[in-house]
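the two lines:
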Amino acid sequence: MEDNQSFLDLQVDDQAAINLHETSKWAKFLAVAILSAMGLVTLLFVAFWSSMSSAFQSTDDFDERNANMLKIVVAVCLIIVLAIVVILMMFLLKGANAIRQAVKHKDPVLFNTGLGHIRNYFAMAGILSLLGLVFKIMTFFLQ
Amino acid sequence: MEQDNRSSDLFNEMSIDGMGKQYIRSIASWAMVMVVVAVIGYVIEILDFLRDKPSDGRRVEGFGGLTEAMGNSSAFSVFFGIAIGLLINFFLFRFASQAKAGLDGHDQWKLNSSFSNLKAYFMACSIILIIVLVFMLLVFVVVGARFGTM
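prediction for all of em together
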């Protein structure tokens, strides 16, 4: 009876294993690409830190004090965004790696761990998108 | 004995236990939230684009030309962005709906199809990210060359 139940239960069959393997490969690629892009943005920000004030002053009517203030605000925003993106992408990376290994070794515990990380990734992305929507609605009605 | 081994190899698939099903259900729910939020966001974006904007009332105190330049978006960029977003969210929607249907109806084919759609979602995101990064790199090179000659 138990064997029958297991036979009828949902499984990671060959087709699902291929799809999950491909999914984990693309998810890993996406996470690595986004982390690399964020690293590049940070490097560019550090490299152009000194010339940023003059760029702000030439773009807009800022005096030096306001330009420095804007520089600090931009730096704080970048650090916050960087922290959020790194946490988000680490969930995706860990999930992708765990699912890949689980499919390879047919390990259900590792598979659940991977799904848990992917769940965390989607939950965090969902909460961030909800916050974004609230901000969008606020700006739409306040304009 | 040999018969037993052959039979265990035949059914040696990794089964999705209760915890796994719960995780997949949760992933599908959050994915659906993301799709709904994205679609509402696109509607607001279109409404915002169609709304009459006062041309001289957009200057924010202390941030004059910068905010005005950032706020002006062309029809092409708005609708192109929405089209790409809809394409990505279409895959996510199909993943979420098929995963839920597969789990509820014990339908292996639907579950497999949902994983295929999740793959397509990550693939589309990756390809679009690469295109955006290459475009940004080109813009950066052009701007850098322009500032270099000044």
